[in-house]
Amino acid sequence: YLNRIEVLTTPPDRWEAPQAKPVAGTVPAGTLVELSSTYNDQDKVHYTLDGSTPTLDSPMYNWVASRWWSSRGDDTVAEINRPIELTKDTTIKAITLGPGRMNSEVVEFTYKVTGTAANIGDQIKPSEGGKVSLGDEAVIEIPPGALQDANAVVVKIARVSEPPAASSGFRILGSVYEFTVGDKNSYSFNKPVTIQFTFDPDKVGPGETPAVYYYDQTQEKWVSLGGEISGKTITVQVDHFTMFAVMVETKMEDEDEGEPLNLTDIAGHWGENSIKQLVSLGAIGGYPDGTFKPENNVTRAEFATILVKAFRLDSREGKAFADTRGHWAEDNISTAAYHGIINGYDAARFGPDDSITREQIAVMTVKAAKLTPATASDSFKDSDSISEWAREAVSTTVENEIVKGYPDKTFRPQGYATRAEAVTVIVNGLNKHRYPV
User: Which of 22, 209, 234, 347 has the fewest CB neighbours in a 10 Å radius?
Assistant: First the structure.
């Protein structure tokens, strides 16, 4: 349906080039690459893996979709919003296409893949049991009768690209691993199974003893299982699957002064001071490798959790969304809902794992900081693209100097917020809070 014909007197703008997470470089086998663009309304990212130039007919990474599908007819496969798994050295070529703008330039992301990919095709018969391994990094030994399933099922091991951070005073040795049975990443066995991990003894300091930990998603913390150490391996028996890691307890050098962990990638970053402040409050942490990843996107669940912790909201039972039951952030989302900070897309759906947009963080922060609403204004070039429900909140955050626009005088309301942006907004909100923390 044709709504309008517009004659332009100047050339149209060009779509922003796609971005990749993680960025190009050396990565372990099994890494999942996500593609995205600056906008999230009409543009789509198309890509190739064979060195050819991507076109409209190339596979599409529809990064605003929450699903993926495939059809296998005549040996063709169409996939939507499915992360690209790297099992060998790969160059991804990508382009952003969409109506109303010229195509973006073609960008390349080249990855050097190291190590061994997960054994994603290991079928285990419940009556026989079996063994699954990720190289020599992690091994699962499943005895006969341990699996609850009646038929053979695929058991997988995968490295977690962005795992929960270790608690203060602990250090993760190597990677964090997630074990799954079929499509379940939380699974209980009929009898104990044995898991074994390899660690680097040279990374174990004096007085430190490695132990296997599992991540309790309900309590959002790592729990020690101990383990039997033999050389550079550690073995333990478990009765359920979740995320596991080998850790050592260690005292950080700056622990006595109450300073945040020595994050390796924030020095000189524009958000360094805000990041340090929020880390010191215990509202957010770094990653097991000592990084903060300030330019990574933030999910709606993560932002709600940071708000609850930063503003020290009393834990309460609020609205329960259908898609947050059993989620690691369920309690914090419920608390945020009770305090009137968040809303769902509808009565049943919150979208906890969706990346949060800039206009969404503006709305949540205004509610958390209890700010007096400001009159909506058209202070940005793209003010017309701000959702009606977010206009007042955006104006309020701008008036209170909590959120700023970009140098090109745009706000990019539907653009995804980075970890550094989210932290800065929350710190600014704390400073303007009507009831100081």
Answer: 347
